[in-house]
């Protein structure tokens, strides 16, 4: 079987969970006999050749241009019969075309793929709620509240400059391309339920967790005499939805005696691309941490996937602060892979993947005081760390994820 996998980015150049999951699927399929997969990742213009939106990167790997923004989701490269996009697909001649996102690529690419390869089946993996929500697909109201349902009236309240009629027409436009999809994949039941409530047929949405390349747990960090499990770490992209500011506020609010027993390592990138207000807020929090508790917070910057096992071996907990629902954060799977419990908010895909006592602990979403109290409980020995490790769920291995997708393709 021949499968073309499209992603909104290539993990060589972007470290988000969606592109990592798509590339893992590509690797997993190619590791199985009798199947071939191609990976086509969207890239910035400077990564491409002059005069063409398609560039070869490695064997069976391409980069493709595109800048379809979230409100319109409209493709920005040529997709006609004589386009480089069409030539690439004809060369691959896939049995299945799997879009592991549509943002940046553009919804019209689904139609173009169906036209160029009419016998190929179309699969689309859903990630955020970009087809539903104009606010970066996060289903958070513009005043900061969580959004529980979408409708032209609800969305107009967040975007009064966009008429209810235009919001309705956008929904019709998105669904017209979704109608061309043979099967949708959702990495969580939570995300599936939201899209089904929006109008997708439940029978067309299959839940398959994101897979990760094989790896084994690293032993719990060796403790010195009298030392507790007080090393926390954040891994992932840094933006205002991910809640690194909430995590910092929780640590800064800890009693002085507790601050001496804990540390927070921040491994992540993307802060430089955020708004000036958010950059300034995070910078001020880091300065306060340095002043109030020197050495408690350490900012390390970006990391590579190959480093992750070594980095996690030196910490006790993986902490998340996301202020939106999340879908199926890859960092949770990565924590399980390396044997580290997760502390995360109690909403959405996070609460589905991490349940109290099974995989980690939850705190009240968007509430730094709740996280702060949980950290105090940990330092006071009120949490059974060994029990969390013992009952930790397994992660879906790359080969098993590939097998599940191949079964779906067949």
Descriptive report:
The protein has 410 residues and is of the alpha/beta class. It has two domains: 2-212 and 398-409, Glycogen Phosphorylase B (Rossmann fold, 3-Layer(aba) Sandwich); 231-390, Rossmann fold, CATH 3.40.50.2000. Helix content is 35%, strand content 16%. It has 15 helices and 15 strands. It has helices at 17-30, 84-92, 108-116, 152-158, 164-178, 189-198, 244-252, 256-259, 276-292, 308-313, 330-338, 348-353, 368-379, 385-390, 398-409; strands spanning 2-7, 36-42, 54-58, 61-64, 96-99, 121-125, 183-186, 205-207, 231-235, 263-267, 297-301, 317-319, 342-345, 355-356, 359-363. The strands form two sheets. Strands 3-4-2-1-5-6-7-8 form an eight-stranded mixed beta sheet, sandwiched between helices. Helix 4 (152-158) crosses helix 5 (164-178), helix 7 (244-252) packs parallel to helix 9 (276-292) and helix 7 packs across helix 13. The longest helix has 17 residues, at 276-292. The chain is globular. The mean pLDDT is 94. This is Glycosyltransferase family 4 protein. Residues 16-212 form the Glycosyltransferase subfamily 4-like N-terminal domain.
């Amino acid at each position: 079987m021949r499968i073309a996998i499209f992603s909104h980015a290539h993990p060589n150049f972007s470290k988000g969970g969606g592109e990592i999951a798509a590339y893992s699927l590509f690797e997993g399929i190619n590791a199985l006999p009798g199947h071939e997969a191609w990976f086509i990742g969207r890239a910035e213009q400077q990564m491409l050749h002059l005069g063409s939106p398609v560039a070869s990167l490695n064997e069976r790997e391409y980069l493709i241009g595109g800048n379809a923004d979230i409100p319109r989701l409209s493709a920005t490269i040529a997709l006609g019969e004589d386009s480089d996009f069409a030539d690439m697909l004809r060369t691959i001649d896939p049995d299945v075309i799997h879009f592991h996102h549509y943002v940046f690529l553009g919804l019209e690419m689904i139609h173009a793929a169906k036209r160029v390869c009419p016998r190929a089946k179309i699969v689309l993996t859903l990630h955020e709620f970009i087809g539903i929500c104009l606010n970066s697909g996060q289903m958070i109201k513009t005043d900061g509240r969580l959004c529980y349902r979408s409708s032209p009236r609800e969305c107009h309240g967040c975007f009064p400059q966009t008429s209810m009629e235009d919001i309705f027409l956008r929904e019709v436009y998105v669904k017209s391309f979704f109608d061309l999809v043979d099967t949708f994949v959702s990495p969580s039941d939570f995300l599936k339920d939201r899209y089904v409530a929006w109008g997708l047929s439940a029978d067309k949405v299959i839940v398959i967790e994101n897979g990760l390349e094989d790896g084994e747990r690293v032993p719990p960090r060796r403790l010195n005499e009298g030392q507790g499990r007080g090393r926390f770490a954040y891994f992932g992209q840094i933006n205002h939805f991910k809640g690194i500011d909430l995590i910092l506020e929780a640590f800064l609010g800890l009693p002085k005696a507790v601050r001496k027993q804990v540390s927070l390592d921040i491994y992540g990138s993307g802060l430089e691309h955020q708004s000036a207000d958010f950059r300034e807020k995070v910078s001020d929090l880091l300065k306060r941490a340095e002043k109030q508790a020197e050495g408690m917070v350490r900012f390390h910057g970006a990391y590579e996937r190959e480093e992750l096992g070594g980095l996690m071996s030196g910490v006790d907990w993986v902490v998340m602060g996301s202020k939106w629902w999340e879908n199926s954060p890859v960092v949770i799977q990565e924590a399980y892979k390396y044997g580290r419990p997760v502390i995360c908010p109690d909403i959405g895909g996070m609460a589905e993947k991490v349940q109290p006592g099974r995989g980690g602990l939850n705190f009240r979403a968007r509430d730094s005081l709740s996280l702060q109290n949980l950290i105090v409980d940990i330092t006071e020995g009120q949490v059974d760390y060994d029990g969390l490790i013992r009952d930790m769920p397994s992660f879906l291995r790359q080969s098993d994820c590939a097998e599940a997708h191949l079964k779906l393709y067949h």
